[in-house]
């Protein structure tokens, strides 16, 4: 199953409604977004961070408290672990692009709702189209289910490599999962080691 062709949504579909010339134009189009009720409770919209031409892109679930305050993805405890994972393969966050399924923090970090995902993911799809990464790493269930168009859980999909719309997609546990279940930390480092092999093969 490591090379399945799955029907994903990378840079297709409703993203065409928000087609932009570059990430700055997309950010301007999103603006002070009021398209769903998350605008009523968020502090800052979290657009994304990193190299706009990166070959590697990470997609998480939604901003947390620290991200909501700073306006940058993965800056809390999960972000520090992500930095360590990147360091383990000789990279840092400036070598990739990092975004989330949702651009605004859900209250109390609850799970994203279907209507929020439907409202926000056209912007994510446009980010993917503009950045044009070769490899997309989905962190956790929500990003994985969205990009792979599946209901399977991350525990069944993690560490495998999928091909969607001409890109390689690797689902991996969300770093936050290892903060609550330390046994998952080794899975994360193992999967990042495989990610390095995938990246190295792409450079060959």
> Major sheet: size, sense and barrel closure?
6 strands, mixed
Radius of gyration: 16 Å
The low-confidence runs, each spanning 5 or more residues with pLDDT under 50, are 1-17
Strand content: 5-15%
Q: Distance between termini?
A: 24 Å
**Taking all residues together, what is the mean pLDDT?**
91
> How many beta-strand runs?
6
**What is the H-and-E element order?**
HEEHHEHEHHEEHH
Binned, the helix content reads 40-55%
Strand order of the largest sheet: 1-3-2-4-6-5
Globally, the shape reads globular
Number of helices: 8
Structural class: alpha/beta
Can you tell me about this structure?
Strand 5 and strand 6 form a beta hairpin. With 204 residues, the protein is α/β, with parallel strands linked by helices. It has a six-stranded mixed β-sheet with strand order 1-3-2-4-6-5, sandwiched between helices. The chain has eight helices and six strands. Helix content is 40%, strand content 12%.
List keywords for this structure.
single chain, 204 residues, alpha/beta, six-stranded mixed beta sheet, 8 helices, disordered N terminus
Spell out the blueprint of helices and strands.
Layout: H1 23-30, E1 49-50, E2 56-60, H2 65-70, H3 77-88, E3 97-100, H4 114-131, E4 135-139, H5 141-148, H6 154-157, E5 162-164, E6 167-172, H7 175-180, H8 184-203
Parallel strand pairs: 2-3, 2-4, 4-6
Antiparallel strand pairs: 1-3, 5-6
Brief synopsis:
It contains eight helices and six strands. It has about 200 residues and is of the alpha/beta class.
């Amino acid at each position: 199953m490591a090379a399945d062709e799955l029907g994903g949504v990378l840079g297709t579909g409703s993203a065409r409604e928000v087609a932009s010339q570059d990430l700055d134009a997309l950010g301007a189009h999103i603006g002070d977004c009021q398209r769903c009720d998350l605008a009523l409770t968020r502090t800052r919209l979290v657009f994304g961070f990193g190299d706009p031409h990166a070959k590697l892109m990470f997609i998480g679930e939604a901003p947390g408290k620290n991200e909501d305050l700073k306006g940058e993805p993965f800056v809390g405890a999960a972000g520090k672990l992500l930095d360590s994972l990147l360091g383990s393969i000789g990279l840092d966050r400036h070598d990739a692009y990092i975004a989330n399924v949702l651009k605004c923090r859900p209250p109390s970090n609850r799970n994203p709702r279907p209507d929020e995902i439907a409202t926000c993911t056209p912007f994510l799809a446009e980010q993917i189209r503009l950045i044009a990464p070769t490899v997309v790493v989905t962190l956790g269930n929500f990003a994985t289910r969205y990009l792979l168009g599946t209901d399977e859980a991350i525990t069944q999909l993690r560490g495998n490599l999928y091909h969607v719309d001409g890109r390689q997609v690797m689902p991996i546990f969300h770093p936050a999962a290892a903060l609550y279940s330390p046994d998952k930390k080794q899975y994360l480092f193992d999967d990042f080691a495989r990610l390095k092999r995938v990246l190295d093969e792409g450079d060959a």
